[in-house]
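Give me the fold.
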Amino acid sequence: MSVINISQVHKKEVIEFFQAHWGTTEMVISSGVYDCSKLEGFAFLDESQKIVGLVTYIIRDKECEIISLDSIEEGKGIGTLLVQAVEDQARQHHCTVVSLITTNDNLHALKFYQKRGYYLVEILQNAVERARVLKPEIPLIGNDGIPIRDEIRLQKPSASI
């Protein structure tokens, strides 16, 4: 099992992974509209070379933004290794911050990132309603029956990366 650059994974497998876990490769968040299959990132492969974790990111100026993070084998450290790989890239590119956006229903992500040194820095009220204009298939109700309305921006300063 290993973390590798997403460019080393066959594009078809990356697309199939996103379609299986998100229904599409497209991510619509307040920072932009992204085709995750075309972004920089890292994959975690199991012994049979199957993707069991995937992270994508972009670097703008001195900010690295995680766009997507998925681990299909929870509690094994896969997500942590993938985030660390992105943070390594951020350091190499002299980024001053690593950021990400998640939705208000994603309590699991909020816990995960805060345990790894990320701070809640902004609540974007009703941002998901605006995203639904571009991507109407975003569900109204999310994890634990929580209505999906807001986006939450988290950041980790470079001193902590």
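The radius of gyration is 15 Å.
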